[in-house]
């Protein structure tokens, strides 16, 4: 019995470690955009640190001494570097800046689903999970006609997706109706 408990604990910790590693990988590659909520910490500088700040419609953040800092399209690491360099320029000698994504911007599900609308993104979001969040398919929904428009692509530039394809924050998922 103790061996089974130990094995269960090892499996649980391994699963949590893999999930954390995947989330860290997503966060490192993630490109910031309008509606994301981030934290900015400057070690030893409370006045330059923000626990929660939502990026504006232009995906900028007002920052002391630096003005409006453009975050759109940057990774959290790139934003850290930008703020660090700005603070080095006459303000701090060796600033240590950390940027974390607290809440990802929403993604949207529309078309033949029970509850179309915007939903909170979580790393690992797939088309299947998005449909489940939206209350499932309607009776007339197609099982194959599913399209996504990426937040960083031109309007109307939709592409067909499979049920297990991963979504990104800002995506617009459309489930079309079936004729039969």
TrEMBL record:
Pfam families: Poly_export (PF02563), SLBB (PF10531). Residues 25-101 form the Polysaccharide export protein N-terminal domain. Keywords: Signal. Residues 107-156 form the Soluble ligand binding domain. One of its GO terms (molecular function) is polysaccharide transmembrane transporter activity. Coiled coil: none annotated. Residues 1-21 form the signal peptide. It comes from the Bacteria. PANTHER family: POLYSACCHARIDE EXPORT PROTEIN GFCE-RELATED. This is Polysaccharide export protein.
